[in-house]
Amino acid sequence: MSIVNFLSGGGTALFTEEAIRERVKTLAARIDADFAGRVPVFIGVLTGSFIFIADLCRAVKIPCEIDFMRVESYGAGTVSSGKPLITQPTKLDLKGKPVIVVDEIVDTGLTLKAIIEELSASGASEIKVCALVDKRAKRRTEVNVDYTGFVVEDGFLVGYGLDAAERKRNLPDIWLLEEI
Ligand code: IMP
Ligand code: MG
User: What is the pTM of this model?
Assistant: First the structure.
């Protein structure tokens, strides 16, 4: 836990800045080993992955390319359509390259499924998934997460990129909100 937690999430601190840093180092070391001699493309899922991918890509020691995709599930409404739309595709040519999709949290799995479907037509040589948090209770489709930071059963998390109505992304720790 940060000594002075000036930015409080308003619930329970679940994963501290220090714990996240350690976990990111471990994931980066595994990626370094698995992709030694190759140049993977990290594709961050906007907006929530922006902090995780920034830390992850600085913790790996291998060369890499970085881009982002934006996916929206909600359109103008507040209820998930269940069919996420890719509203910003990658601008990189992925042909023959290994790709690592970086997301901050997997919940239903529908977002990652849509991304993997989109990327599978890109000619990428392989597609791996790295998620900081794997939230299991509400999974609606099977998604293989190759690199997992933390596993939680359920609950609404904020901080380290995760938001509640666009707020709290800037908290250094990850918090479990008691109420939203
Ligand atoms: P999906 O349900 O797996 O498609 O997840 C879609 C997106 O919902 C995630 O990438 C997050 O941006 C967001 N999300 C899911 N669970 C949480 C949470 O606990 N806190 C904040 N955002 C979440
Ligand atoms: Mg996300």
Answer: 0.92
